[in-house]
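Consortium newsletter contribution from the modelling node. Members have asked for a concrete example of what our holo predictions look like. Here is one, prepared for the zinc ion complex that several groups have been discussing at recent meetings.
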Amino acid sequence: MAEQRCCPHCGVALTPTIGPPDSGWGDLLVCENNECVVFSGSKTDIRYKPSDSPLGCRYAEDVDGGYKSFNMLAFRGM
Ligand SMILES: [Zn+2]
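And here is the predicted structure:
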């Protein structure tokens, strides 16, 4: 890794990952901290989500897009 980037919300180092093939994303950096406010606080942001759904949003950056940040929908508990 040429550069280590950290989540601006929790300060944990972002984990390099590859976006889903049909998402249009390439290399991504994702905050995998389950205590991160983006993830732990995402429960109320997804209104259509059932209360027992394992889905949440993780902080992520699009490497190819100039490290543009976005919230990536992700399963909880991974
Ligand atoms: Zn975070």
